[in-house]
Design goal:
- There is one protein chain.
- The protein is mainly beta.
- Helix content is about 0%, strand content about 55%.
- It contains no helices and eleven strands.
- A hairpin with a 4-residue loop joins strand 5 and strand 6.
Length: about 110
């Protein structure tokens, strides 16, 4: 199974981007789906997590600017990013957690110029 993440790119500070991630086949039942990111020289960190049933969890710095949504029937997860800042520059990775294992996407690069 592969997770295909796309939607990254180069934007200016203050602009928006929407990332998408879709599995190559159904991963039902899904326990949770998430986005992580890894900035240059830093460790990978959680951005947001979508739980089966629709509840969401955000890491502190992203609350209010980023919105995660999911469609477990499609094994797809999305991340709407608004008011982007230069410090949001990173490779963004999607993750789908089934009840038996984790799946990771290949990452999509987001570059925010100031």
């Amino acid at each position: 199974v592969q997770l295909q993440a796309f939607g990254g790119g180069l934007v200016q500070a203050g602009e928006s981007l929407k990332l998408s991630c879709v599995a190559s086949r159904s991963l039902l039942p899904v326990a949770a789906m998430a986005w992580y990111r890894q900035a240059p020289g830093k460790q990978r960190e959680l951005v947001a997590r979508w739980l089966s049933g629709g509840s969401t969890i955000y890491a502190g710095p992203f609350k209010g600017r980023f919105t995660i949504s999911g469609d477990d029937a499609k094994s797809a997860v999305y991340l709407q990013m608004n008011s982007l800042k230069s410090e949001d520059t990173a490779v963004y990775y999607c993750n789908i957690d089934t009840h038996s294992r984790d799946y990771w996407g290949q990452g999509t690069l987001v570059t925010v110029s100031s």
